[in-house]
Amino acid sequence: MTVILVFLSAAIVNNLVLAYFLGICPFLGVSKRLDTALNMGFATTFVMTLAAAITWLINNLILVPYDLPFLQNVTFIITIASLVQLVEMFIKKTSPPLYKSLGIFLPLIVTNCAILGLALFEALREYTFLEGLFFGVGGGFGFTLALVLMAGIREELEFAEVPESLKGAPMTLLVAGMLALAFMGFAGLLSV
Amino acid sequence: MASRSLYSEFTKGIWKENPVIILLLGMCPALAVSNSAVNGLAMGLASTFVVVSASSIVSIIRRLVPAQVRIPTYIVIIAGFVTLADLFLKAYFPAVAKSLGPYVPLIVVNCMIMGRAEFFASKHTLLPAIVDAFGTGIGFTWVLVVVGVVREILGSGSIFNVMLMSEDVFTPWVVMILPAGAFISLGLMIGIINYFKNLKAERAK
Amino acid sequence: MSFKESSAGMITVMTVVAIIVGSILAGFYQMVSPRIEANRLAEEKRAIFSVLPEAKDYVTIDLEVGEGDDKESLMIFRGVDDDNAPVGYAFVSEGPGFAAAIVMMVGLNINTEELTGMKVLEQIETPGLGNKIAMEPFESQFRGLKIKPAITYIKNKKPESDNQIQAITGATISSVAIVKALNKTIKVLMPFILEDIRNPVVIERQVEEEAVPEPKEEEK
């Protein structure tokens, strides 16, 4: 039961992007078109889930027992960076078409703070392994959701008359503000 | 390298190539911890420390690091300095550390820092690298403080934790300290800056 | 191909960098961790003294609560006066709030019938509404509050009995979350507190470390 709550909480109620400001760079950068947004979302979800599992293992089997919490940050980021590299090589070998659609996003994911943030929150909240895994999937799903919503709105915005000074980044930020307001409606439903 | 003076390397980060308002880097912390002026300042200074230290080390060892592993090497160095900053805040400014929470460790993935290391420090000598990083850090800090001040005044009616208006006179706009307020204030701020830039460009014609 | 560009070169560089960074961090951590621990202790101490105003010192008692997978390590703090006589107990209570867990320090008087104080330690409730739970008007309602049969709440009205508090208007969920968490924690810990009153656990007095800052009012 709690795993489902953790999932919903990470995906919707406490959306990583709109409530915790994680992964803003890709959120603003890769949300111009719906299909790229969707692909980016899937690639991130995939890496996020793997990262959630692996950082959990590292944290709970190595860092916590040997009292090395100050190495969390360094080890997590290195884990994520090498994970992305591995996934990239793996996809390249096994599925060239998938690599074609996801490949260019993978390097970007390393500096996506949503993944490191997810790993840090996971450690901070002392989730169990299963909860951590669902936290990863939920976080990825929430990220995809925010990205896709944003891309949908921005595609429509192309036809709107936006004041000259607000074109581009400012308008995107304002739209993100509205989205965050909308997501506040979910606040308080769950607090896991 | 000599074509640009140190002075212009310093000032470009503050305005012309400001990491937040022009290059849109480091948005996560700029939005997340700018709910009060103090938080913005603390985050800005911590990031400045990290960007300056990381850029200096990267510049010093730039000839020793093989090109293929430079990104992971830089990340380890940056993560090391971030952890130092985090421990320092926890030890000497526990209240600040508590209110910034996990956003201090997240400085690691602030693309602004990686950007300075990769595009500038790895190609320049120590002095320009430090000056460039310092300018970028200052540019980052001032934007965070300004956004923090605006959000704090409107959202809590105070500035640097000093109460300006009592709640009877002014009902705080709670939304400003919530996530939505962060997006909206930063968006409007960039919009206003764009407006003046456009105005200037018009006049120049 | 130079050594620098070979795989061995890459591995050497990465390893050297990692070792240097790791050892600097380990050294710095060794240096500052006593301070970090002292900060934590000072905060704990401040919270305990603010909910147990009569206490001059306190003793930490470690407990094991629950069986099997539900087993938890908890702590209660026995507040003592100058003569080392117990004046009450303090403990940490935690429960889900509106946005995330709310953690608070609670003080119970020595006849285990009423609270001597409550202080919210951690919360990220909605600013302007829910976060009023961490402010004096709300927290002071718990001073002298009867806990038997259980703490209750009422909305939009002054409390009608001495085991009742008034929920914050517009932040009922946050207020109720505290009441629920308190009732639950009290139920769990009460047997241990009663046991400790009957047979006080004797704990060697720790050597006082360097003076910890005096408890002072945090509220502006």
Characterization of this structure:
The complex is a heterotrimer of chains A (192), B (205) and C (220). Chain A has one domain. Chain A is built from ten helices and no strands. Helix content of chain B is 66%, strand content 2%. A two-stranded antiparallel ribbon of chain B has the order 1-2. In chain B, helix 1 packs parallel to helix 7, helix 3 runs parallel beside helix 6 and helix 4 packs across helix 5. In chain B, 56% of the residues are buried. Chain C is α+β, with helices and mostly antiparallel strands and 220 residues long. A five-stranded antiparallel β-sheet of chain C has the order 1-2-3-4-5, sandwiched between helices. Chain C has a two-stranded parallel ribbon with strand order 6-7. The longest helix of chain C has 45 residues.
Record keyword descriptors for this entry.
heterotrimer, A: 192 residues, mainly alpha, 76% helix, globular, B: 205 residues, 8 helices, 66% helix
Shape of chain A: globular
Overall pLDDT confidence of chain B: 86
Along the chain, the helix and strand elements of chain A come as HHHHHHHHHH
* Rg of Cα set of chain A: 17 Å
Specify the number of helices of chain A: 10
Distance between the termini of chain A: 11 Å
Number of helices of chain B: 8
In percent terms, what proportion of residues of chain A is strand? under 5%
User: Biggest interface and which pair forms it?
Assistant: A-B, 45 and 42 residues
In terms of DSSP E residues, the strand content of chain B is: under 5%
Task: Sketch the major β-sheet of chain B.
Answer: 2 strands, antiparallel
Spans of chain A of 5+ residues with little confidence (pLDDT < 50)? none
Structural class of chain A: mainly alpha
Number of strands of chain A: 0
- The secondary structure category of chain B is mainly alpha
> How would you write the strand order of the largest sheet of chain B?
1-2
